[in-house]
Amino acid sequence: MKLLRDTWLMFHRYFVIFISNPAWVIIGVAQPVLYLLLFAPLLKSLVHIPGFPSGGAYNVFVPGLLIQLGLFGASGVGFALIAELRAGVIERFRVTPVSRLSLLLGRALRDILTLLIQSLILLGLAIPFGLKPTAAGVLVMLGLVALIGLGMSSLAYAAALALKDENSYAPLVFTLSLPLLLLSGVLLPLQLAPQWLQDIAKVNPLSYAVTAARDLFNGNGGSPDVWKGLAIMAALAIVGIAIGARRFSRAIA
Amino acid sequence: MIHTRQLRRTFKSRRGPVEAVAGVDLDVLGGQTFGFLGPNGAGKTTTLRMLSTLMPPTSGQATVAGFDLRREPGRVRERIGYVSQEGSSYEDVTGRRELVIQGRLYGMGRAEAQRRAAELLESLELVDCADRKTKTYSGGQKRRLDVGIGLMHLPDLLFLDEPTTGLDPQSRARMWDEVRRLRESGTTVFLTTHYLEEADALCDRIAIIDHGKIVAEGTPDELKRQVAGDVVLVGTDGPTERAHDILKGQDFIRELTEEDGALRLYVDRGETAMPQIIRLLDGAGVTLATLSLHRPSLDDVFFRKTGRSLRETAA
Ligand SMILES: Nc1ncnc2c1ncn2[C@@H]1O[C@H](COP(=O)(O)OP(=O)(O)OP(=O)(O)O)[C@@H](O)[C@H]1O
Ligand SMILES: [Mg+2]
Question: So where are chain B's domains?
Fold first, then answer.
């Protein structure tokens, strides 16, 4: 099928670009690793506070870090697209009969692959600190990260195509991703937050992903919150793809 | 190969709408090299982007490579190649990879794409840098790669947006050779340029566009014949006013304009006009510094049609 073939060709192109410069897998994973080393230890003294979820500091914190990785990792992908836009590559592809959807999906799949590699690195590093994952939990977790990556990087590409230059893309990404992060309960569980903050967080899709991720690492793999998180992230991915694909097929004036 | 009727494109800007292309009628036959000549901002790129399906026209009709631009853009895309003004390769990819993926996107198998890429690298003299990332390429190498990318799928029609702008004379000569080879192979080429000598040297037909409108169209010779007669340039020592006054009333001079401190005379026959000019100016005591005879060039055509010199506007 043409869509699959084109998506594969695009994925392959961006994968080759990626392995020709693998430094940024490390750069991407550096930030969460710093959180793991320099922030997570603080939580150890908080685990006994009423309202702190059970399961131990790392089993509470690391799942959130993976969601953060997905959010930040995917939001940065627009920069490479803007570079290509400027080089005329996107215009060149749009003159070929290539499927417009594959222009988006090929890249997004490469981004997902990167995220999954980074997630595994992070999980591996967290185990010596006291993270106790289950195989099933990790698998579903990776699925959740993949969905976040798909949705967020599609939205990031749509924004990059709309704005067309780094100087407006960068501020947009930074102003949006920080509140998204703070209102998701990644750093500290939202159960500790006052009610009004918890209410605002309810409109942030990522907060459901964080809740689902924590359940996955704390023996509640079958809880309805896991399904809810997965469903909301799947919906986000679909919306993201729809918006991103529309942008790729529209004229870039 | 290309037929357009009243093709228009308007952009919205803060100071109201800008009519970048204001009703263009073009007919380009198969196998021709067609030149689109015009100064900066004339609407060349906008026209090309419409014809290559990148941008929908605001109004008007066009068929490109046998298919209606609006109704069957997919069919058009299969048959055309487009080399944009800005270039089209990515710095972190090798030239060979860029060619291969381009072929693959047009449905070629891997082996076929690799064979075709090798062939193009050979003919465009890019073998030495084929497996280096394109950020290491010189300007000329990059531009040749762009053309190669546009030719990967052997299109019937190739759009080249300013293929030689910014190239040194040697690279430009190579590009000219490449365009001539394309013409010999039967490919229709639609190129834009600021350079009159380029349009003159390469093109079977030329359209001159200014402010979004075609101001002249024809073979280079036809266009030059529209500016009948010859051009004589007269340079004097010091101000040109006296010479201007003396020559103004003469019957054999059809038109007289001033340009860069010299006089430009349009005459029927330069050979007989020159001695007369010398006699007249000598007799009045005006010292001639330079006197030269020119067959009309496309520059004169442009000047006649727009009142401006293309060289000034394209600077
Ligand atoms: N996206 C756009 N939005 C607004 N105005 C535009 C846009 N693209 C082009 N224009 C305007 O349309 C006019 C024609 O531009 P175009 O790029 O077609 O000129 P050109 O003949 O290719 O010039 P050049 O020789 O400099 O490449 C210019 O006045 C330009 O500013
Ligand atoms: Mg242009």
Answer: 2-224, 228-295
In CATH, which of 3.30.70.980, 3.40.50.300, 1.10.10.10, 3.40.440.10 is domain B228-295? 3.30.70.980
Global pTM? 0.84
Residues B35, B207: contact at Cβ < 8 Å? yes
Ranges of residues in chain A with a pLDDT under 70 are 251-253
The CATH number of domain B2-224 is 3.10.450.50: no
Min Cα separation A248/chain B (Å): 11
CB-nearest to B88 from A20, A89, A252 is A89
Residue B12 beta carbon below 6 angstroms from any ligand 1 atom: no
The radius of gyration computed from the CA coordinates of chain A, to the nearest angstrom, equals: 19
Indicate the helix (H) or strand (E) that contains B258: strand B253-259
Distance between CA atoms of residues A157 and A3, nearest Å: 19
B44 alpha carbon – ligand 1 mean position (Å): 8
B231-270 confidence digits (pLDDT tens): 888 888 777 888 888 888 788 888 888 877 788 888 888 8
CA distance B67 to chain A (A): 14
A32's CB contacts (< 8 A; 6+ apart) are A65, A66, A68, A69, A118, A122
Q: Which two tokens stand for residue B254?
A: 């059809």
Q: How confident is the model at residue B16 (pLDDT cuts 50, 70, 90)?
A: confident
